[in-house]
């Protein structure tokens, strides 16, 4: 089975030696999506907007691979502070409204660019 590199200008470019996503067969594995506006490279300054931007970026990467958020089967949410969980969860619920994917939420010491959140996913096509 061949692996296909997924790249879209609709989401921020990778900030290191990795791909936005990899597609193997009918499975898409995304890299963590930071809350960076692709047009400006800037980040919002609150957890609600950072969550929204991360999920919009995730959506664009998943769509570039030929899937949709409805086909996401697993997400991992990395938070810089678990006290942001409720606010993140509220915004997350705007993107995943039913048939929810499995999810892990993990507090980490620090994220790239000092983001408050990073979200990765696995999707089926």
UniProtKB/TrEMBL annotation:
Gene3D superfamilies per the UniProt record, alphabetical: RutC-like
Species lineage: Bacteria, Bacillati, Bacillota, Bacilli, Bacillales
PROSITE patterns: UPF0076 (PS01094)
Superkingdom: Bacteria
Entry protein name: Reactive intermediate/imine deaminase
Signal peptide: none
Classification via InterPro entries: RidA, RidA_CS, RutC-like_sf, YjgF/YER057c/UK114
Assigned protein family: Belongs to the RutC family.
Organism: Peribacillus butanolivorans
One cellular-component annotation, GO: cytosol
Gene Ontology MF annotations: deaminase activity
